[in-house]
Design brief:
Elements: H1 2-19, H2 22-27, E1 33-38, E2 43-48, H3 51-60, H4 62-73, E3 77-83, E4 94-104, E5 118-121, H5 153-164, E6 174-177, H6 184-198, E7 204-208, H7 209-221, H8 225-232, E8 237-241, H9 250-265, E9 269-274, H10 286-292, E10 296-299, H11 305-319, H12 325-334, H13 339-356, H14 362-372, H15 383-394, H16 398-402, H17 408-424, H18 429-435, H19 441-457, H20 459-477
Parallel strand pairs: 3-5, 6-9, 6-10, 7-8, 8-9
Antiparallel strand pairs: 1-2, 2-4, 3-4
Helix pairs in contact: 1-4, 5-6, 7-8, 11-12, 11-13, 13-14, 15-17, 17-19, 18-19, 19-20
Amino acid sequence: MLQDTKSLWLSCRKYIIDNVDAEDFNRLFSHVTLQTYKVATKTLVLQVPSSYICEEIEKKYLDVMRVAIFNTFGKIRLDWNILVVEDQPGGKGKGLIVEGNDETLAPDGSIAATKQNLRVAPGTASTGNLPPIDPQLNQNQTFRTFIEGDSNKLSRAVGLSIAEHPQSTQFNPMFIFGPSGCGKTHLVNAIGNHCLKIYPQKRVLYVSARIFQVQYSNAVMQKQINDFIAFYQTIDMLIVDDVQEWISAKGTQDTFFHIFNHLFRNSRRIILVSDRPPVELEGMNKRLLTRFSCGLMAEMEKPNLQLCVEILKKKTLRDGLKVPEDVVQYIAQKANGSVRDLEGVINSLMAYSVVYNCNIDMRLVERVVQRAVKSDDNTPLTVDDILDRVCRHYEVTPNAVKGRSRKREYLIPRQLTMYLAKKYTNIPAARIGRMIGSRDHSTVLHSIEQIENKLLTDKEFAAEAAKIEEALKVKKEQ
């Protein structure tokens, strides 16, 4: 009987070989082996090394598997279930269980008049017995050194809750986005460090999107992709920074999709960082974007002047620097709301102070700031800059323009602001609408069309718009 079962499985494999791409057979089906076949219960158990292979077969070759099994094992009733069981010391792998139910397998291999039922069950083993890993965290970036302000209050509060309760499924995944220099990387490192302080047995890993992509490429070249995926599926808290760098990396996205699914299904923590929200990651796989958006999206903004001053005072105190109050105010104003620029200036001042044994005064600070902080000369216009200029021209308030009134005195400034924002910024129409009274994409496009028509037919209005644009260009050059 055993020999007959092996012969049937070999025939099944031969059908698969003849009907799938050779590269895909080597990548997927070559890892599938027969475990058991029970005629009485009509149950076929196949063993595979990872859930990634199960998911790939489901996505691309489910019909081929059905036909292969029907042609070799006969007309049986089937229900497809994939049961993933983590590797154990005894050598048990991960199994693909195919067992009988009341659905009839038609001669062509499809389930007659019934929608397929293929599901992936989560793994059950703990990661506690695995060897420790280097979390790749910056030990200096903790909650103690992270200064709270209005621009990061929500993100910090949720991040602290996640670090203290990583087993909770609330706010999973956490997607943090915001401009460069607002403290995103510091926050996620603080989350990882705090979690390990409370739960040292947890497998926490911080990785940049770029490093992940390089690791993936190396794994593909060395034909170790299954090992690569299996490693990441053991992580308890995975932190990925700068995920916007994957926009054109289709293979990396597909692989991370499988890793994400496994971690999410097993209630592991996923924290993602980007310079923009998921809706603006144009070119990213849609099924991945839906997963990015299914947890908590926390926006971090550049710190205001007051927060910059607090950050500077905390850092100078920690580094033992004596910096006059007027110097602190000057640095905060020149740092363009970038925590990274603030730290660069303080580090440079400390170096000058030690090497030249000199006091920190305004003259020294001006020299350091000129070299360490990017000038505002080429700073692009923002939607707020444009809204402010339009409101001043028409003598209305920003709140009135953002409001719901359809009065002409507010409607024209609102539409013109949308038109100029689209012209002078790289911000998508959907986000422009959200920034100007929480309006949708279609409203912005309609406003742009209305302004373009008005510029062609109303010379007086065209002159007003030109005057506003000139003022914006002057502001940009200042």
